[in-house]
Predict the structure.
Amino acid sequence: MKLSSHLPAGSVKIMGGQLYRGATATSAGVLEANPGVLIKNGRIAALGPDALAQAADETLTAENCIVSPGFLDLCCNLREPGNGQKGNMASETRAAAHGGFTSVCAAPDTSPVNDSGAVTSLIRDMAVRRALVRVLPIGAVTRGLQGELLSDMAGLQKAGCVALGNASRGLRNARVLRRCMSYARTFGLTLMLNPENQALAADGYAHDGLVTTRLGLLGIPEVAETTAVMEMILLAQETGVRLHLSQLSCARSVDMLAEARQRGIQVTADVAMHQLAFTEDALSGFDSRFHVRPPLRSERDRQALVAGVRDGVIDAIVSQHQPHESAAKQAPLEASEPGLSSIEVALSLGLERVAANELSLPQLLRALTAGPAAVLGQSAASNAGLGAGAVADLCIFNPDQSWCPGLGTLVSAGGNGPVLERVMPGVVHYTLVGGHQAWPSLLP
């Protein structure tokens, strides 16, 4: 990682504020007064009185702030390797650090697609030279993400992929899906799949509901997701693969997930932050920013997704960060490219849900830290909690301060943010990766 830290390699002490100590199997975690956190050589050396008793080379003040494990994003498009119009490793990991994220899973739909160990090695090499946060590559489950021929799963795993996924692309049929699961099970890999029945989704680009009917848009029915969820759950039960359902959008999907868990099936899931914050009504003005996949659905679905996070049925919240150049979003709604540049405002959107009493702050932080870390296992241990000996990947933010996302404050190359020129809660003061300062970034 190319870190811009002015913090010394020796020791740093964080004083004041509150600590979020992370979730357990039965708790969303707790907030407690922070008497001190001591960092030495990239790791947490001491907490509390032990930290106070020791000297440090530099002290960071965290008054009125929360000191949390750094956030982990299970779905982030870094746009590199690629043509560079939409962003690159440097710009988008800087945006991640601005949002409090210390680790991001790089989606496999790069150019070329990350379907071989050679591309994975290229991504990891780029990350070492240019990234400000940890980059965890996700490999393509099929060659070229074409949904037919299986990729070299063993080679991808050996090269450093932490999981395999389909990046919103469909698989040819259930037989291919079953083969993917069987092979992934053989290598102990997690499959991170976006559930969508391509035939039922067809050419749709919005939720098949009241807004599409009123505006004459082509809809994607809920059943396009729910039939895929059920198929994946049943095949996961048969094959024993570790299945992760990516970016759920429907209330019925949450119900099926809970039922599968009760039957002991190994399945986890995440939801994009914008699905918790917006509904199909965001498209009422033909606003192409909110052309996303899966589409924003009804208020009933939104509430069910929030409840899924609150109850721990949904393990993680992701940014589903997809920066675009302006031309990609200035086309008519149906011709625009789906996706939001969202990683910098994910925390703020979540804090709005806290302010609305839909989530508690520990529940939000669990879904940004320990939840996604549990999905990946040891690959993301530094995002699981705070404790002596842990890697010092930290986010220090003030939930009560406000800021205004806009051209002068956002650092992603994508201008397609979900909230622009609107006052939002939550200011990230520091993001530390391995004890080094990734945000505020000193890079131009």
Remarks:
- Residues 361 and 433 are 22 Å apart (CA to CA).
- The two ends are 16 Å apart (CA to CA).
